[in-house]
What does this fold into?
Amino acid sequence: MSQRNRMTRRGYSPVAFFLMFTIAVVAGLGGGWLSGNVVQAQDSSAESTAAESTAGETPQMIAFRGATMGTTYSVKVSDPPDGDDWAEEASLAVDAELRRVNDQMSTYLASSELSRFNESTSTDWFDVSAETAEVVAFALEVGEASGGRFDVTVGPLVDRWSFGPGERNQDVPSDTELEQIGERIGQEHLQARIDPPALKKAIGELRVDLSAIAKGHGVDRVVELLLARGAKNVFVEIGGEVRVFGAKITSSGTVPWLVGIQRPDAENNKIAVAHPMKDSAMATSGDYRNYFEVDGERYSHTIDPVTRRPVRHDLASVTVIASTCMAADAWATALNVLGPERAIELANENDLDTLLMTRGGVAGVRQSDETNGNEGNQMNVIGTGTLAAVAEQMMMAQAATAEGGGFGERMMPILVLTAIGFGAVLIAMAVGVIFGRKSISGSCGGLNARTDPDGVSRCSMCSTPSEGCKELREKIENGQSAGS
It folds into this structure.
């Protein structure tokens, strides 16, 4: 072993000293920054994309995805039924079922039941499938319970505000235009009959759009199909609407499905919290992505059917957990239109589990008819039912983060102390006193006069020696004395 290696092994390397110092500082202070950060979500089931199939004792996980309803769907089955062809057959069956939903309720497919009903100007009963009649009937129930804030006939209003499928011109309609549109919308002009299944409209021009509820219904259809085919643990998601059944089976045991609730921020896709779920559905409605601005005024895609205008309140997103995804989907939309205070009241009246995130600080909640002038980085998180505890935890974490300061404030002490430590090492090396407290002598900053207990010169550790030091090192390594 060379003298240099011996010295490094004995712990005299300044690089090692610097690294140990830096690690100590970061461990001491950095941990405080990490522990005080915003609520960190675990890897939620909704974020996993790859199919898993592990040999041995680990239960199998199959996953497949595809396109539907203008978005994508994702299906996972944990510990699926036996059979080499089960996964392929299940995937084909899911695709076929989602095509049926489109054939029944799409407004983009001209041949669908709903499109044909919309094209008809007849005010007689119009025959539809049992599924379409049931979805419309439930939509009418939620619409009535929410005071008309959920209305599946509001399509023409959405189009005029440039949030429909057509080109967005971003001009604000006049009161006269809105009044004229109001004459051909309104769920009071629509009826649904379950047996025999049919729809009826009192206005020939009435149109029905189920986009705020059809995805949730599609999720329910897929879950029920998989359960009928023998699956016991499933996760189904369409365009962010989720329903789970059973649990996730792993080699270490059974764990609940984790579903991520996104922070209402259009600039990123951060998960605010990953919520464990079993035998339930979740849907979120928000206005933080789809909007436009005219003359400094923000117009959200969330249209209030009663005022016929985009909502003007601080509520950024609403998450609802219910037994079916259709119910969660519809209620999330209705509560998002109502605004914070009325949404909380209605959620409590209907025993809904909800998580509401509002813009601005935690001081208060605004009424739905007030303007939104308090946007900021902090949120007010309010929960009802089983999500009340989740809201409280999120608020506590946010408060802890606010008290501890931002990233820059927390990292500055680490950077300063690291710089001081590194500077101290350099100064000590320059004056030749890092390994002792004797006076400076000789060349190499006095290092050649410094020896370890074995009599080896410190000068041999220099990584960029001068010509004189190189000669001295060669003499040392050849066993010669420095003075020969």
